[in-house]
Amino acid sequence: MSQLTFIFAAMNAGKSTLLLQAAHNYVERGMAVELYTAALDTRAGLGVIRSRLGIERGASTFNADTVFDHRILERDTACLLIDESQFLRPVQVRQLHRLAHTSQVPIRCYGLRSDFLGHPFAGSAALLTLADEFEEVRAVCGCGKKATMNARLDATGARVSAGEQTLIGGNERYIAMCPRCFYLDSAGEQDAQSTAA
To answer: Which of 22, 104, 107, 173 is the most exposed place for a label (fewest CB within 10 A)?
Structure first.
């Protein structure tokens, strides 16, 4: 039975690497795989999924207007892999859930669970609601513990606690942290207090 799977982690855990490895495994066995990534993430170029290890592969892009229905699938598609799935709209997650169950094509979405303030992305919240299976990828905090939170850094490397939810960046902009380090940091304390108020 095909299903919708959400593979999530904090920043820099290797989600894109895992997606690219999964794509390679299908292709190596002579199967067709379709890849999608968010159009707003152009760090590696438009329609390119690149891991921090340097491997990359071209992909179709999605934006807020993309409709995920049977028309996006090639006749022989064995699997649909979506990177940066936190940027999906909830209606798109519903479409993907429906597509997985009506097309018999497994759909695997890779993305962040929460933003730099610990708030859910709309796409991630919908995936946590509708996905049939979940896989958490382990990221490591600077203290060595499991990182589940993301902190945003400014140009000087200082942590910030305000700003737009979406600001595309990699290692220069974000750091994965365990919850303890996230909340002990002064910016995290300010956010926790403002959220509680």
So the answer is: 104
Instruction: Dump pLDDT digits (tens) for 26-83.
Output: 999 999 999 999 998 767 678 888 887 888 899 999 999 999 988 888 778 999 999 9
CATH assignment of the domain containing 178: 3.30.60
How do residues 85-135 score in pLDDT, each as one tens digit?
999 999 999 999 999 999 989 999 999 999 888 889 999 999 999 999 999
- How far apart (Å, rounded) are the C-alpha atoms in residues 130 and 25? 26
The verdict on whether 74 is a catalytic residue reads: no
Out of 28, 56, 74, 84, which one is annotated catalytic? 84
**CATH code of the domain containing 42:** 3.40.50.300
For residue 172, say whether it is annotated as part of any ligand binding site. no
Residue 156 and residue 133 in one domain: no
CB atoms < 10 A from the CB of 68, how many?
Answer: 23
Check the annotation: does 12 bind a ligand: yes
**Terminal CA-to-CA distance of the chain, rounded, Å?**
46
